[in-house]
Write a structure and sequence with these properties.
- The structure holds two protein chains of two kinds.
- By secondary structure, chain A is of the alpha/beta class.
- Chain A has eleven helices and 14 strands.
- Chain A starts with a strand and ends with a helix.
- Chain B has a two-stranded antiparallel sheet with strand order 1-2.
- The longest helix of chain B has about 35 residues.
- Chain B contains 14 helices and two strands.
- The radius of gyration of chain B is 23 Å and the shape is globular.
- Classes of the chains: A alpha/beta, B mainly alpha.
- At the A-B interface, helix 2 and helix 3 of A face helix 1 of B.
- Bound molecules: adenosine-5'-triphosphate and magnesium ion.
- Adenosine-5'-triphosphate binds next to helix 1 of chain A.
- Chain A: InterPro entries: AAA+_ATPase, ABC_transporter-like_ATP-bd, ABC_transporter-like_CS, P-loop_NTPase.
- Chain A: One of its GO terms (molecular function) is ATP binding.
C-alpha cells in the first residue's frame, strides 16, 4: 500500500526550544492512524506542520507525493483538517460557514454541500447561527468542513471532544465508511484512549516530541498482561502468600492480580484447597489506557 | 480573487456592527441637514449689497501681504497669488459670494463625517486579520489551496471596498438630503479653481468629489497602517488604538515638529493632507505636491511589504 503522508525526520524549534525532535512515520492509504501522546507531547504542533500552519524547522512532510514546504497549494488540496477545536464564524449559519470554505476550493457543488451536511447529520440545524450550536454540533460542522473537497487525507485533532457516546459512535462509523468506501486515510489524535482502540488500525505514540513506537492496535493490546479481580470471603493467612508469590493487590472484597489466562484455574484450585470462599472471578481487561501509561511513564 | 472578496464581504456584512456604522453615518448627515435648515429658517439669507467693496478691500490686503512676506516664502507667495487671482476673477465676472444655504453647503459640511468614516474604516481594517486569530477561524482559513498573500490581498481590497462604499453613501445621501431640504440651486454656481496660474470654473459636483477623495487620503493611509499592524501583531486593539491615536494626534504632533525641524516633512502626517496644495499652506516650506505623493507611496508600499511578509511567513499558533 502506498503512503499518503510521510514525515521525514521532522523537527520543530520554537524560540530555541526543540518541540518536535526528528519525527518520522508514514500513513498508508485507507487506514485510520492514531496519534497518541500525553498533554504537551507535540501532537497539535505536528498537525500544524502537516497542514502548513507552522514552518518545519528541519526535515520534510510529503502528502501524496507533494511536499507541504515546496508545493503548499498542491499538497494542502489533498488534506481536510480540524486543528484543535473547530472554530467557525459564530455570526454565520452553519450553511454560510460551509459556503465560505466551498468558495475556496474548486468545483464544490450545492449538491455536494447537501450530501456532506446529511452525512454528518446536521440537516435540521444547518440554517441556524453557529453561536446557537452545541459543542457536538460544532464538531459535526467541523467534520463537514473537511469533507467538502473529498480529501485523500483527513486530519482530526481530538474529533470526539464534546461528543456524546452516540456521537462518538457515529464518528467512528463515518471514519470506517470513509476509509473503506472512499479509500481516505485518517489521522486521529485523541485523549479518549479507549476510543482509539475501537477506531484505529495503527497508532503512533509520541512523547516529548519524539516517536516512541508505531504499532498495530492488536500488537499494542496483546503486549499487555491481563488483570483479574477475585471476589472472595475472608482471606486469612492466604493474604501473605498471595502478596508474596502472586504479587496480588488486596481490595475490599478480595484481591486483584496480574496473571495470564492459563494461570487462572491454577489459582482458583489453590484458593479452594485453602478453603477460601470464592464468589466470582472477573477479567479486568487492561485497556489501551493502562498500556499507554505503561509505555509513556517508562 | 472574486470569490475570496465575496467571502470577506459576507463576513463583514453579516455582522450587525457594520450596519450600525452605516446607520450612524446617515444619522449624522440628517443631523447636519437639520442644523443647516434650522439656521436658514431663523436667519433668512440676505444678499450683502456691499460685497464688491468688501472683496476689493480684502484684495488690497492680500496684495500687501504678498509684497511683505511673499519675497522670502515661496509657499505663502503661492497662497496669496491664488487668493488674489480668484478674487480678481470674482470681481471681473460679477460673481457674488454665496449667501444662502444650499445643497452645496450641506454636501460640503458633510465632509466632516469623513473623520467618522475614517474611524470606522480603521476599526474594520484593524479587525480584518486580527479577528480571524481571536476567533480561531484562521486555522481553517489558511489550510485551503490558496496562498496566504492572496488571502491577505482579498482582505485589504475588502477594506478599500468598505471605505469606498461609506464615502459613496456619504456623498449620495448628503446630496439627496440636500435636494429634499434645500432644493436645487436656481443657477449652477461654479467652483473657482486655480490651476497653472489661471482661474478655471469647475462643476460643483466634480469639485466635491475631488474634495471628498482628497480628504480621504489620510483615511486610506491610516486604514492601511491599521491593516498592517493587524496583520503583523495579530491584535486588533493594538491596531485600533495606535491608528486612532495617530489619527487624532498625528496631525497636531507633526505641525509642532514642523515648526521646529525640517525633517518633519518626512513624517506621514505632514503629507496626508493634500488639500494644502490647492487652498492652503504646506506644513514645511518647500514641500510640493509631487513630494507628498512620493512620500505617501513610499509609506503605502512599506506598510504592505511589512504586512505581506510577516503574514505569509509567521507560524500560526492561535
Ligand atoms: N507557539 C508555541 N511557542 C512555544 N512553545 C509551544 C508553542 N506551541 C506549543 N508549544 C509547546 O510545544 C509542546 C507541544 O505542544 P502541543 O500543543 O503540540 O501538544 P499536544 O500534544 O497537542 O498536547 P495536548 O494533548 O494538550 O493537546 C508543549 O510543551 C507546548 O508548551
Ligand atoms: Mg493538542
Amino acid at each position: 500500500m502506498s503512503a499518503v503522508l510521510t514525515l521525514d525526520h521532522v523537527k520543530k524549534v520554537i524560540g530555541g526550544k526543540t518541540i518536535i525532535n526528528g519525527l518520522s512515520f508514514s500513513v498508508r492509504e485507507g487506514e485510520v492512524f492514531g496519534f497518541l501522546g500525553p498533554n504537551g507531547a507535540g501532537k497539535t504542533t505536528t498537525i500544524r506542520m502537516i497542514v502548513g500552519l507552522m514552518d518545519i524547522s528541519e526535515g520534510d512532510i510529503v502528502i501524496c507525493g507533494k511536499s507541504i514546504k515546496n508545493d503548499f497549494t498542491g499538497a494542502i488540496k489533498e488534506i481536510g483538517a480540524i486543528v484543535e477545536n473547530p472554530e467557525m464564524y459564530k455570526f454565520l449559519t452553519g450553511y454560510q460557514n460551509l459556503l465560505q470554505y466551498a468558495r475556496m476550493h474548486d468545483g464544490i457543488t450545492k449538491e455536494k454541500i447537501r450530501e456532506v451536511i446529511e452525512l454528518v447529520g446536521l440537516t435540521d440545524r444547518i440554517h441556524d447561527k453557529v453561536k446557537k450550536y452545541s459543542l457536538g454540533m460544532r464538531q459535526r460542522l467541523g467534520l463537514a468542513q473537511c469533507l467538502l473537497h473529498d480529501p485523500k487525507l483527513l486530519i482530526l485533532d481530538e474529533p470526539t471532544n464534546g461528543l456524546d457516546p452516540a456521537g462518538i459512535r457515529e464518528i467512528r462509523d463515518h471514519l470506517r465508511m470513509l476509509t473503506r468506501e472512499r479509500g481516505m486515510s485518517v489521522i486521529v489524535s485523541s485523549h479518549l484512549l479507549s476510543e482509539m482502540e475501537l477506531m484505529c488500525d495503527r497508532i503512533a505514540i509520541i512523547q516529548n516530541g519524539e516517536l516512541i513506537d508505531v504499532q498495530t492496535i492488536n500488537e499494542f493490546t496483546e503486549q499487555a498482561t491481563a488483570a483479574f479481580a477475585f471476589e472472595t470471603g475472608s482471606l486469612g493467612d492466604a493474604a501473605t502468600w498471595l502478596k508474596s508469590d502472586w504479587n496480588a493487590l488486596m481490595m475490599e472484597e478480595g484481591f486483584s492480580v496480574e496473571i495470564t489466562r492459563e494461570q487462572v484455574p491454577v489459582l482458583i484450585k489453590k484458593l479452594t484447597a485453602e478453603g477460601i470462599d470464592l464468589y466470582g472471578v472477573k477479567a479486568v481487561a487492561k485497556t489501551l489506557e493502562d498500556r499507554f501509561l505503561e509505555v509513556t511513564t517508562k | 480573487m472574486g470569490k475570496l472578496i465575496i467571502n470577506e464581504c459576507a463576513k463583514l456584512f453579516r455582522r450587525t456592527g457594520t450596519w450600525v456604522m452605516f446607520a450612524i453615518v446617515i444619522i449624522m448627515i440628517l443631523g447636519i441637514g437639520a442644523f443647516l435648515k434650522y439656521g436658514e429658517v431663523n436667519n433668512p439669507p440676505q444678499v450683502n449689497p456691499a460685497w464688491e467693496q468688501e472683496l476689493a478691500m480684502q484684495l488690497e490686503a492680500d496684495r500687501a501681504a504678498l509684497e511683505e512676506t511673499g519675497q522670502n516664502n515661496a509657499t505663502l507667495r503661492m497662497f496669496y497669488e491664488r487668493e488674489i487671482a480668484v478674487k480678481e476673477y470674482q470681481l471681473e465676472k460679477d460673481l457674488a459670494p454665496e449667501t444662502g444655504v444650499t445643497l452645496w453647503s450641506l454636501m460640503s459640511e458633510a465632509q466632516a463625517v469623513i473623520g467618522i468614516i475614517g474611524v470606522f474604516t480603521i476599526i474594520i481594517a484593524a479587525g480584518m486579520v486580527a479577528s480571524e486569530f481571536s476567533w480561531g477561524t484562521v486555522k481553517l482559513l489558511l489550510i485551503r489551496p490558496i496562498k496566504r498573500s492572496k488571502i491577505l490581498l482579498s482582505k485589504y481590497l475588502t477594506v478599500l471596498l468598505f471605505g469606498g462604499l461609506m464615502l459613496t453613501v456619504l456623498y449620495t445621501v448628503s446630496a439627496l438630503v440636500g435636494l429634499v431640504l434645500f432644493g436645487m440651486p436656481e443657477q449652477a454656481r461654479p467652483y473657482l479653481a486655480f490651476a497653472d496660474g489661471e482661474v478655471v470654473e469647475r462643476s460643483m459636483f466634480i469639485q466635491l468629489i475631488y474634495n471628498y477623495l482628497l480628504s480621504s487620503i489620510d483615511v486610506l493611509m491610516l486604514a492601511t497602517m491599521a491593516f498592517m499592524i493587524s496583520a503583523v501583531f495579530r491584535n486588533s486593539s493594538l491596531a485600533i488604538g495606535l491608528s486612532l491615536f495617530l489619527m487624532f494626534m498625528g496631525g497636531t504632533g507633526t505641525m509642532l515638529l514642523a515648526s521646529k525641524f525640517d525633517w518633519a516633512k518626512y513624517v506621514l502626517f505632514a503629507n496626508t493632507n493634500l488639500t494644502v496644495y490647492f487652498d492652503g499652506v504646506p506644513p514645511v516650506e518647500g514641500m510640493t505636491l509631487a513630494f507628498s505623493i512620493i512620500m505617501l507611496l513610499i509609506y503605502f508600499v512599506v506598510f504592505h511589504l511589512l504586512a505581506f511578509f510577516v503574514f505569509a511567513k509567521r507560524d500560526v499558533a492561535a
